[in-house]
Amino acid sequence: MLQQTQVARVVDRYHRFLERFPEASVCAAAGPGAVVEEWAGLGYNRRAVNLHRTAVIVTEQHGGHLPDDLAALLALPGVGPYTARAVLAFAFERDVAVLDTNVGRVLARQGGSPLSAGSAQRRADDLVPVGAGWVWNQAMLDLGALACTKRRPDCAGCPVSASCHWFASGCNEPDPATGSAGVSVPQSRFEGSFRQGRARLLDALRTGAVVEPSRFASICGWESGELGHDAAAAAESLVRDGLAVDVGTGSLRLP
C-alpha cells in the first residue's frame, strides 16, 4: 500500500484491510474482485490484483506464510527487489539492505556520482553491519527521509556529512542522486490523463454494476473527445491487468 502512496492515506486503510482479510488464505478465497473493491482510493490498482495473486500462491505453496527466502519472495507477483528485501529485513531480521528512493539518494551523494542498479544494491548490502540489519535499515531509511532529502537537505545536521563527497564538494550541481538507480522520478500529471479516466471506470465497476461499452466514454470523462483518449482502450487495459472481466458484448464487471 505504501508504494508511491503517502503514509497518511494508508494507515486507516491498512487496518481496515486486515480486518476484512486477516490472513492470506482469507484474501485468496475472497477473489480478486473483493480485493480490488477494498483498494478503492489507494491508486495503482494493479497492486491489488498482484496482492491477491500473491495470497493465492502463499496459501497454496507456502502454508499461508510469506517465505523467508529472497528467490521465493521475488517469484511472487508484484514483488520486486525492494519489497523482497524489506520483508527479509523487517519481518525476518536478515542482514540485507533495503534500497528505496531515500537510501539510493544517500548512497549516490555519499559516493559523489550516480549509481547503477547493481552497484547501488551491492553498496547498500556491503554497508549492513552483521547482526544489525533491522535497525540499520530503519536508520538508513530515516536518514534519507529526514536529513538527506531531495530538496534542501539538512547537511549541517546530517550525522554522516563528514564522509559525504557531495557535501565536501559544496553540494554543487549536478546532484549525483539525479538519475541514480533507486531514486524516483516525478510522476506524470494525473489530472486529465488516461490513468484518471481508467480509474473512474474502475470506480464505477466497484459499485457492483455491470458497465456497458456505450457508457465507457462518459464515465471516463471523455465523452466530448477533447482529451483525445480512447475509452475502449481504457476498458481493454482493465481487463488485461486483471482488474475487470468482459461479461459479453464488451460489458465489464469486477473479477
CATH homologous group name of the largest domain: Hypothetical protein, domain 2
Task: Quote the distance from N terminus to C terminus.
Answer: 20 Å
Q: What is the multimeric organization of the chains shown?
A: single chain
Structural class computed from helices and strand pairing? mainly alpha
- What is the count of structural domains? 3
Question: How big is the Rg?
Answer: 21 Å
Structure summary, number of beta strands: 2
Helical fraction equals 40-55%
Put simply, the count of helices is 13
Q: Approximately what portion of the residues adopt beta-strand conformation? A: under 5%
Quick check: average pLDDT?
A: 92
CATH-level-2 architecture of the largest domain: Orthogonal Bundle
Unreliable stretches, pLDDT < 50, 5 or more residues? none
Described by the principal axes of the CA atoms, the overall outline is globular
Largest sheet: 2 strands, antiparallel
Under CATH, the topology of the largest domain can be stated as Endonuclease III, domain 1
Return the string of H and E elements: HHHHHHHHHHHHHEE
Provide an overview of this structure.
The chain folds into three domains: 7-79, Orthogonal Bundle (Endonuclease III, domain 1), CATH 1.10.340.30; 101-168, Helix-hairpin-Helix base-excision DNA repair enzymes (C-terminal) (Endonuclease Iii, domain 2, Orthogonal Bundle); 194-253. It has 255 residues and is mainly α. The radius of gyration is 21 Å and the shape is globular. The protein has a two-stranded antiparallel sheet with strand order 1-2. α2 (24-30) packs across α4. It is built from 13 helices and two strands. 50% of the residues lie in helices and 3% in strands. A hairpin with a 2-residue loop joins β1 and β2 (251-253). It catalyses: Hydrolyzes free adenine bases from 7,8-dihydro-8-oxoguanine:adenine mismatched double-stranded DNA, leaving an apurinic site. It is an enzyme of class 3 (hydrolase). Keywords: DNA damage, DNA repair, Glycosidase, Hydrolase, Iron, Iron-sulfur, Metal-binding. Pfam families: HHH, HhH-GPD. Residues 1-146 form the HhH-GPD domain.
